[in-house]
Amino acid sequence: MIKIAMIEDDLELAEVLIEYLKQFNIEVVNFEEPFLALSSLSLQKFDLIILDLTLPGMDGLDVCKELVKLDVPIIISSARSDITDKVTALKLGADDYLPKPYDPRELEVRITTILRRFNKSLDKTVEETKEKIFVLNEEKREILKNDKYLRLTAAEFEILSLFIKREGFVVSREDIFENSDVLNSDYENSGSLAVIINRIRHKIEDNQKEPKYLHTIRGMGYKFIQ
């Protein structure tokens, strides 16, 4: 599991990000107070740090100066619009700067990209993934089952990708449409989603009538297990 430290005094935002990233096998520990964060980070090992710049008691750029000494990738998450802050943070050694407000999906992508570059926890995750039946490669837009490529339409790929990333969690119809760039309200109203789900089952299941991987959770949505 990827372990991330977040220094964020907006507890409502922190809670949203913690819950969202959990589904991607990312554990987030939030520190509301920067001095406590610096003390804890000197004792605990994390794969990445998400740092807000507007913090109580200490300026975020000063915190950044201390964090770069730990040799851990840093993503700045800030509502400050001054380009000087962005330039200063990057010059200090931060790896990315994400202005607020932002979509949590973008944060997850940036975390994955940075960790791939650092070859740290993501390598462990990839090793674990190799042992699984289904392997998702988002960059190549490919999904493999037992090392064989699945021939999928754009909609099928999007939905199955979401299921794989949220393995073990219930995914509702609303989740599918909110996280899709292909599906629109026409699909939602026409019932075409059920048709696409059936097509996916046809391509991944040995027996559609007794699905092993993609299960319907009555009244809630779908759950993918492998």
From TrEMBL:
<keyword id="KW-0902">Two-component regulatory system</keyword>
<dbReference type="GO" id="GO:0000156">
    <property type="term" value="F:phosphorelay response regulator activity"/>
</dbReference>
<dbReference type="InterPro" id="IPR036388">
    <property type="entry name" value="WH-like_DNA-bd_sf"/>
</dbReference>
<keyword id="KW-0597">Phosphoprotein</keyword>
<dbReference type="GO" id="GO:0000976">
    <property type="term" value="F:transcription cis-regulatory region binding"/>
</dbReference>
<feature type="DNA-binding region" description="OmpR/PhoB-type">
    <location>
        <begin position="124"/>
        <end position="226"/>
    </location>
</feature>
<dbReference type="GO" id="GO:0005829">
    <property type="term" value="C:cytosol"/>
</dbReference>
<dbReference type="InterPro" id="IPR001867">
    <property type="entry name" value="OmpR/PhoB-type_DNA-bd"/>
</dbReference>
<feature type="coiled-coil region">
    <location>
        <begin position="119"/>
        <end position="146"/>
    </location>
</feature>
<protein>
    <submittedName>
        <fullName>DNA-binding response regulator</fullName>
    </submittedName>
</protein>
<feature type="modified residue" description="4-aspartylphosphate">
    <location>
        <position position="52"/>
    </location>
</feature>
<dbReference type="InterPro" id="IPR039420">
    <property type="entry name" value="WalR-like"/>
</dbReference>
<keyword id="KW-0238">DNA-binding</keyword>
<keyword id="KW-0804">Transcription</keyword>
<dbReference type="GO" id="GO:0006355">
    <property type="term" value="P:regulation of DNA-templated transcription"/>
</dbReference>
<dbReference type="InterPro" id="IPR016032">
    <property type="entry name" value="Sig_transdc_resp-reg_C-effctor"/>
</dbReference>
<feature type="domain" description="Response regulatory">
    <location>
        <begin position="3"/>
        <end position="115"/>
    </location>
</feature>
<keyword id="KW-0805">Transcription regulation</keyword>
<dbReference type="InterPro" id="IPR001789">
    <property type="entry name" value="Sig_transdc_resp-reg_receiver"/>
</dbReference>
<feature type="domain" description="OmpR/PhoB-type">
    <location>
        <begin position="124"/>
        <end position="226"/>
    </location>
</feature>
<dbReference type="Pfam" id="PF00072">
    <property type="entry name" value="Response_reg"/>
</dbReference>
<dbReference type="GO" id="GO:0032993">
    <property type="term" value="C:protein-DNA complex"/>
</dbReference>
<dbReference type="Pfam" id="PF00486">
    <property type="entry name" value="Trans_reg_C"/>
</dbReference>
<keyword id="KW-0175">Coiled coil</keyword>
<dbReference type="InterPro" id="IPR011006">
    <property type="entry name" value="CheY-like_superfamily"/>
</dbReference>
